[in-house]
């Protein structure tokens, strides 16, 4: 009788902990896409270790082949494009994550921001493994770095993370 109660209490506690972690957007339940997005955001921060996610809204939508090939990194010859489209079992997909976060700026003040992270996937199964492939607010990190006053320092920091 006591064993059954202990098992029941353990199960209830386990469900409560998992439910709380899920509601709080725990990294245990975060997709690879969102993890890469968060890493890309942190690469832009003055104090990356102070990053803290506040809210997350992620989704995916089907996009056209023209949208998929519009990215300069996806530019291929017309024959390659036709063969990729012909071999595809599914249309391309765009992953989108809206991430509200807070972190310290260069003066130590806590700032709250929202980042929009996107990734165009060939078929919805090829989640990015490197920050290079995601766009934060419409821009890849290497492009963002090039516009910064301390571009050389930031570029070196990005290269270390590759």
Task: Please describe what this structure looks like.
The structure is a single chain. This protein has 162 residues and is of the alpha+beta class. Helices cover 41% and strands 23% of the residues. The protein has 6 helices and 4 strands, in the order ααβααβββαα. It has helices at 2-23, 32-44, 65-69, 78-87, 141-146, 151-160, and strands spanning 52-62, 93-104, 110-121, 135-136. The longest helix has 22 residues, at 2-23. Mean pLDDT is 84; it is low at 20-24.
Overview in brief:
With 162 residues, the protein is of the alpha+beta class. It has six helices and four strands, in the order ααβααβββαα.
Main beta-sheet strand count, sense and barrel state: 4 strands, antiparallel
What's the alpha carbon Rg, rounded to whole Å?
Answer: 20 Å
- Give the N-to-C terminal Cα separation: 56 Å
Order of helical and strand elements: HHEHHEEEHH
Mean pLDDT: 84
The number of helical elements comes to 6
Alpha-beta content class = alpha+beta
Strand content: 15-25%
Tell me which oligomeric state these chains represent: single chain
Q: What are the segments in which pLDDT stays under 50 over at least 5 consecutive residues? A: 20-24
Shape: flat
> Helicity, in percent?
40-55%
Strand ordering within the main sheet: 1-2-3-4
Number of strands: 4
């Amino acid at each position: 009788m006591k064993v059954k109660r202990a098992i029941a209490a353990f199960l209830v506690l386990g469900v409560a902990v998992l439910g709380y972690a899920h509601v709080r957007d725990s990294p245990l339940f975060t997709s690879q896409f969102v993890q890469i997005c968060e890493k890309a955001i942190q690469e832009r921060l003055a104090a990356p270790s102070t990053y803290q996610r506040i809210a997350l809204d992620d989704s995916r939508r089907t996009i056209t082949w023209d949208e998929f090939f519009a990215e300069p990194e996806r530019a291929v010859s017309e024959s390659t494009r036709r063969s990729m489209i012909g071999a595809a079992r599914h249309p391309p997909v765009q992953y989108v994550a809206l991430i509200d976060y807070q972190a310290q700026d260069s003066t130590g003040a806590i700032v709250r921001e929202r980042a929009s992270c996107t990734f165009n996937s060939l078929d919805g199964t090829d989640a990015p493994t490197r920050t290079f492939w995601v766009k934060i607010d419409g821009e890849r990190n290497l492009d963002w770095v090039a516009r910064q006053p301390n571009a050389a320092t930031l570029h070196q920091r990005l290269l270390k993370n590759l």
